[in-house]
Amino acid sequence: MAQMMLQYVLYLGILLVLAIPLGAYIKKVMCNEKTFLSCILTPCETAVYSILRINKEETMTWRQYLAGVLIFSGIGFVFVFVLQLVQGYLPGNPQHLPGTSWHLAFNTAASFVTNTNWQAYSGESALSYLTQALGLTVQNFVSAATGISVLFALIRGFTKVESKGVGNFWVDMTRVIIHILLPLNLIVALLLVSGGVVQNMKGAETASLLEPIAVSRDGEILQNAVIDVENDTVKVNSQSIPGAKIITKEFIPMGPAASQVAIKQTGTNGGGFFGVNSAHPFENPNAFTNLIEMVSILLIPVSLCFAFGRALNNKKQGYAIFFAMFFMLIVTMGSIAVTEQTATPQLIQQGAVNVTMMDQAGGNMEGKESRFGIASSAAWAAFTTAASNGSVNSMHDSYTPLGGMVEMLQMQLGEVIFGGVGCGLYGMLAFAILTVFIAGLMVGHTPEFLGKKIEPYEMKWAVMICLATPMAILTGSGIAACIPAVATSLHNAGAHGFSELLYAYSSGASNNGSAFAGFNANTVFLNVSIGLVMLFARFLPILGVLAIAGSMAQKKRIAVTAGTLSTTNGMFVFLLIFVVLLIGALSFFPALALGPLAEFFSNVW
Questions:
Q1: How far apart are CA 57 and CA 51, in angstroms?
Q2: pTM, full prediction
Q3: Of the candidates 593, 602, 564, 291, which has an alpha carbon nearest to the alpha carbon of residue 453?
Q4: 604 pLDDT higher than 70
Q5: Euclidean distance between CA atoms 302 and 290, whole angstroms
């Protein structure tokens, strides 16, 4: 137990040690201050401005900034969509994979443009190297940069006084990619390659199995089968199995994995190069790569809290937002760890499974890699669902009912427990505006936040931002649950089957991308509906955030008085957490009661 606690503390400690200086660096980059990399990267930035004819001194109104976001994302969507359809005719396809269906192409384009990386396909058998590198990896960079850019537009809204400008989207995008994402991911990719993550341009290979295996017509491995390779027959208990196949070779995927894994983690993207994501030994082979990839999930989201405080010249404000997020992360991670370590009544009953920690991981090891154990799996699950990352090193479908519920709840809160790069923090700031408004009503003072008066215009948009995720999840999953054909995509029936469905739409609406592993989402309805949910939950909050930024930038600054509500003390942190949990609990308790809670109590009784 002490060793497991040490692992959790180590993961969080390394994260904070790296995030604090990175936050200071990000602030300097976005405020156009000199950094230790400026002499190398600034000429590259200037060259981009020259080639694209960007005037870096020009500032945009919030509507112009929004237009830039939508136009850029729209072009990216169309490019990724078409690239998938025609990949069979393009180079960089050593396995000669055909183009995807239109609905899968739509879903994948929506997924990667929105920084979700929901995958209704298996990467090694559906997409070519060119599609993964030129389409998906590029979107991993630019979708992450879009989130950070919008966040700093909002920060400028708080810092500027009586101004209509909130920055320049093209300048912000360029700085984020060149000064932050490229150097950071170069380091991470080199670390991953040194740890054994595959990085090559070879086609998939095959290897002969030491012993052949037999599978049924449905693809299930036949245990205790008698295999006659020469006569191509399979018998179980002396009975021939019709339709059985004898497998003598193993498929070994190859490709440029490390370069995509780096940005999928640091950009809170999450889309795996291989189908089973970071549970694959070629994508995450050992404890060293597991540590690098896990810390990378939350590295930028945590650092942005510190960059936020520095950009405001109010470090305490950044610390307050950080502590609210960090406290919720610790609670959720602890909840997942405890439920997985104590396992389920079925595993414990009459010693059916040894769940003790004597010389083993113990607990519920179903769906988890033995090389990582429960501690690394639970911590990763907490990190990836707290952020809008979605990468996995274990199968969330195999978690205990309460463990899976906590993972769902983190996404359903609106990805504000650090959340995605940029979008997590601006989502939490919308909750902060809502908290200030409620607290102001309680004490009879005019709501103020960061020296600006909060008026009905800002409140309407803040409420819309906070409710966008619940609306998308509940509407999408509610409609899907009413369609009989969707039931065929579920691996399980009953409460757990509903949990698979609810998790899918929670993941899409939260721009997370992870899934309960038993859910087959590659159908026309599910691809289109989840794709629409992802687009709605991504761009409606961006619209609200930029509208608030534009309104705030035009306001005068209000002097701090004795009656001003402090937004940096422990009381505000408590109120902020309370409001976040209140909205999540009220919105999703009925749905959670039908899914994971019903499954838990049915298991207990």
A1: 16
A2: 0.91
A3: 564
A4: no
A5: 19
